[in-house]
Amino acid sequence: GDVMKESAEIALSYVRSHAAELGIAPDAFTGKRFHVHVPAGAVPKDGPSAGVTMVSALVSLLTGRPVRPVVGMTGEVTLQGRVLPIGGVKQKVLAAHRAGLRHVILPLRNGPDLEDVPEAVRAEMEVTLAEKVSDVLAAALAEEREQQQLLAS
């Protein structure tokens, strides 16, 4: 939908305007177009919740740093790189847990919503509460030594 399209545009604008500090080569955007594909076309999707995911995917693509495979994330992103709260935290954390993820990144302001998640699930999940995109990327992207292990597996 339109809100998800706007989230993709904000993610690209944020990454483009912060390329140097993100370790992205100056010519990374020259002559390139980006297409965001969200599968399961029959399932309607809209809303800003995928903002942090889109930023993480773009930074991963443009830096070669893979996203850690056990991490799920949700949150709206502003052009200034703030991570804003979203709805449906309980359902999203439960879905991540069901999918086998053991680490979720949520907006800082959604911290109180974790009380709605059953204790048994919370006990098995690592949660990072993010206020800024830099918090998300620090938790989501693999470090140099992890990259070698991920690429080898």
Layout: helices, strands, pairs:
Elements: H1 2-17, H2 19-22, H3 51-63, E1 71-73, E2 76-77, E3 83-84, H4 89-98, E4 103-107, H5 119-124, E5 126-130, H6 133-140, H7 144-152
Parallel strand pairs: 1-4, 4-5
Antiparallel strand pairs: 2-3
Description:
The protein has 153 residues and is α/β, with parallel strands linked by helices. The protein is 43% helix and 11% strand. The chain has seven helices and five strands; from the N terminus they run H-H-H-E-E-E-H-E-H-E-H-H. The protein has helices at residues 2-17, 19-22, 51-63, 89-98, 119-124, 133-140, 144-152, and strands at residues 71-73, 76-77, 83-84, 103-107, 126-130. Strands 1-4-5 form a three-stranded parallel beta sheet, with helices on both faces. Strands 2-3 form a two-stranded antiparallel sheet. It is globular. The N and C termini lie far apart (36 Å).
